[in-house]
Amino acid sequence: MQIPMLKTHGLSGSLKNYSAFSITYEYRLVFRFITDNKALLIAIGTHDDVY
């Protein structure tokens, strides 16, 4: 599932079950959809911190 307003995108490799979006140019939020209306937040940090 993707949310166009947030520009969410699915990840690949070892994070293939997760999605992410940019909070700012530097910071990302990684999460996993639990249902259509709920998400589990996994990590918040810089690109190097979360990937």
Biggest beta-sheet profile: 4 strands, antiparallel
Q: What count of helical segments does DSSP give? A: 1
Strand order of the largest sheet: 1-2-3-4
Amino- and carboxy-terminal Cα gap: 20 Å
Q: Beta-sheet strand percentage?
A: 35-45%
What's the overall geometry? globular
What are the secondary-structure elements, in order, as H or E? EEEEH
Number of strands: 4
Q: Return the average pLDDT rounded to an integer.
A: 91
**Radius of gyration, taken over Cα atoms and rounded to an integer in Å:** 10 Å
Structural class: mainly beta
Could you list the spans in which at least 5 consecutive residues all have pLDDT below 50?
none
Helix proportion: under 10%
List the defining traits of the structure above.
4-stranded antiparallel β-sheet, 1 helix, 4 strands, single chain, mainly beta, globular
Can you give a write-up of this model?
- The mean pLDDT is 91.
- The protein is globular.
- Helices cover 8% and strands 41% of the residues.
- The longest helix is centred in the C-terminal third of the chain and has 4 residues.
- It has a four-stranded antiparallel β-sheet with strand order 1-2-3-4.
- The chain has 51 residues and is mainly beta.
- 4% of the residues are buried.
Summarize the structure.
The chain is mainly β. The protein has one helix spanning 47-50, and strands at residues 9-10, 19-22, 27-33, 39-46.
Write the layout of secondary structure elements.
Elements: E1 9-10, E2 19-22, E3 27-33, E4 39-46, H1 47-50
Antiparallel strand pairs: 1-2, 2-3, 3-4
